Amino acid sequence: LTIATTTGPRATVDVAHEASSIRIGPRTDGADLAVTYGEPLRLALLVGRDPLNIAAAHAAALGANAEVVVSLGTAGRASLIDRATALRDARPHAALVIADKGDTSAIVELVEALRMGCASRPPSVFVSAEDKARVRIAASVGTMRFEALPSPTTAAGREAIVTRLRALRRGAGDVVLRDEAIEASARALATSSGRTTLVLDVSGASTSLVYATPTGASIAAHSRLGVGPGADRVVAHAGLDRVRRWIPRPIDAPALLERVFNRTRWPDAVATSPLTLALEMSLAREAVAHLIRDARRAGMDVNAMRSAALVVAAGDLARFPRPAQTALVVIDALGTEGRQLIARELADALVVQGAIATRSVAADVTGTIENIALAMTVAPKRSTTVTVTDANGTMAERVARGALFLMPTTGGASVMVTGSVDRQDVGPLALGVIVDARGRPLELPQRDAERVPVIARWYSALAALPVDGGAS
Amino acid sequence: VTWRYDEWRTVHELPLGVIHRAEVGQRVRAGDVIANGATYGSNMRIAAARRLGVAPHDLERVMRVAIGAEVEKGAIIARTGRRFARAVSAPIDGRIVHLRADGDLEIATIVDRWTVRATLDGMVIASDDSEITVDGFAWGLQGVAAYGPDAVGELTLAVDVASGELQPSRVDVRHRDRILIGGGRSAAESIARAHACGAAAVAAGAVPASGLRVLFGDDTGAHPRPVRGDAPTVLCLLGFGNAPLPAQLFEPLVELAGTRAAIHTASARLFVFAPRDRVKPAAQAPSLALVNDWSSLRPLEGAVTLGEETLFASEIAARAVVTAQGPIPAANVRSIG
């Protein structure tokens, strides 16, 4: 896997971007590993009516970055024809069947619809059911490829399903999926930093949220939303108005939609103007926010993600020209809570080390990230003051309700808030301390005339958007 | 996105309810029906194996009609025995659509019929109940995205210049069954009018994204899903918004006007059925740039040079292509050859 270099053994990794691949490492003749997005996986969910099973099925789909193209339950009154038609039109690559206890007949109905709709191009069928039910389901599956798996309500069961589904996405090639690499890097970061860590990866065609603890536990959700080829999916899922609401200047919906569609079909396009950069930032916010909503619906511990001690931005989210842009998107999209260190990935370094970590214990995440800000979310009372002490001395700022501001720091700093005895010491930060008293959840005015100045003020508070002008 | 005379392949996905489909090796012409079938209404379950007293896997052996056959009410579906016969008959007019693992049959009423037509002159190379694949030679132009059902018709220019916009006033009932070429932009009103006048399809450099949502629904994206039934067919050759067609694409369209053509929406391709020597494609592939804050596309004509790394207004530094109108990031320029 690795070759010796003057600085020790290093692997060479090809990291796929939207339409190109970047080689990172000492070798020029080839790569040891290739990180790709994997093949899109269209997944059909056939689940009973138990809310636990439904949530677990969606969690497994999120964990495997599979697109749920159709979800059929036993609670509905749809006919066999309706279900078979829905399954035929969805053309799934795989079907995940989860039977409730004591509801075998109803789940068999769904499997019969699957065979009727998809037998001529059969998907891979994964079944989680008790032994007795599995026998009946197996009979209805007919000649379709069938595999029994443990219940997805357990961690081991979910892991098994995710592994099988990922194998389908990987195809015949020996590749590391980007989401696998992100998960491995989150675990490595959490272990090395000794803090709960959330890696937030937004790339052109995928978005990932991976929460890891120093003990090795992790929660992961991935989707095919993105700021490039996945941009139209963000608009389709979140709605155009939700994307538009983050743009710090008036723009009508049709004009915005044009830009989203063209960006979707133009891989690796460069944002040349503040408007297109703001659009990418808006898409990133909504991609993350939508994935968080999906993760919550799937029963994942979103509150733990939101309050992770270290939040690391990766992918395109880490590549915005100003660190303040990355920080602002992370804070807005995640709705951060408490005090959190925000960092960003340096030039694919985290993905590379994550990919290595999937195959070897030699992964080293040191130097893969840059700390950019300490985000402090406060609910201020009348006399709340934030005091920051760094190499330049001490500065104190009173915090008004609704305020968002940056206190720049030089070198290491310590931060205190009135009313709290906790003092937080942080190392060097690219930006400083961001104090956010806007309240949670963030509420934006509906009307453009009220909302645009608010958004512009937030951008301005962190100096997160360049002034229009120059080459475009 | 450039003209090419080649052997193309089209895959036609089939809906549920296939009754007849073209067999492998069958020669087809664009517009020919390659599959037809039924749209099902309500269904009824018949406890066939249990009523006949046979094992589920033995049911097919005693069936008098095959799965997929259309039957009239009262028709014998399956029968056992001679002197003490037991029989299962159809409770309704319909089609036997499914045999369950437990030996029950599903019969469904037929509420509509569908057909799938070829979009190439060629030969069926694969055929099953899920999809049919056709191979054939044609002049082809790869577009960016296509919406609506497949279309076949005579290629007709509806604009005078490559950058022109298809005006609703230029579309009338004389364009029935024609594929209209709409220049650099075709708005939703023009497409809706063309569809109302019976035009087979509209192909243009670009179509406004919001117009596509008006025509095909609010969930329409840049990666369209197949549409069946009565809907316009739209082919976006270069992108969305506004995109004047480069001369290398437009001039062959002028030469091929009046020729039989087809649009295969799943692959977003325009096929024109003309001899190989009918047009001479340009030796140099055109370059296209994503400009105006990504709202439109522009062919690059005249001299351009690849310049040094440039800092753009967004503060992103990238290698740029230098044009008379200013630098454009090299990543936002692509050759469409």
Summarize the structure.
Chain A is an alpha/beta fold and 472 residues long. Chain A has helices at residues 51-64, 80-90, 104-118, 131-141, 155-170, 178-193, 231-238, 240-244, 253-264, 274-297, 302-306, 323-334, 349-359, 448-461; strands at 3-5, 8-10, 13-16, 21-24, 33-36, 42-47, 67-73, 94-98, 124-128, 146-148, 176-177, 197-202, 207-212, 218-223, 310-315, 339-345, 369-377, 385-390, 393-398, 404-408, 413-417, 423-426, 432-436.
Describe the secondary-structure layout.
The complex is a heterodimer of chains A (472) and B (337).
Chain A: E1 3-5, E2 8-10, E3 13-16, E4 21-24, E5 33-36, E6 42-47, H1 51-64, E7 67-73, H2 80-90, E8 94-98, H3 104-118, E9 124-128, H4 131-141, E10 146-148, H5 155-170, E11 176-177, H6 178-193, E12 197-202, E13 207-212, E14 218-223, H7 231-238, H8 240-244, H9 253-264, H10 274-297, H11 302-306, E15 310-315, H12 323-334, E16 339-345, H13 349-359, E17 369-377, E18 385-390, E19 393-398, E20 404-408, E21 413-417, E22 423-426, E23 432-436, H14 448-461
Parallel strand pairs in A: 3-5, 5-11, 6-7, 6-8, 8-9, 9-10, 12-15, 15-16, 17-23
Antiparallel strand pairs in A: 1-2, 3-4, 12-13, 13-14, 16-17, 18-19, 18-21, 20-23, 21-22
Chain B: E1 4-13, E2 18-21, E3 27-28, E4 33-46, H1 48-52, H2 59-62, E5 70-71, E6 76-80, E7 86-89, E8 94-99, E9 105-117, E10 122-127, E11 131-142, E12 145-147, E13 151-157, E14 165-166, E15 178-181, E16 185-186, H3 188-196, E17 201-207, H4 209-216, E18 234-240, H5 247-256, E19 260-264, E20 269-272, E21 287-291, E22 296-300, E23 305-311, E24 317-323, E25 326-329, E26 333-335
Parallel strand pairs in B: 13-15, 14-16, 15-17, 17-18
Antiparallel strand pairs in B: 1-11, 2-4, 3-10, 4-9, 5-8, 6-7, 8-9, 10-11, 11-20, 12-18, 13-19, 19-20, 21-22, 21-26, 23-24, 24-25
Helix pairs in contact in B: 3-4
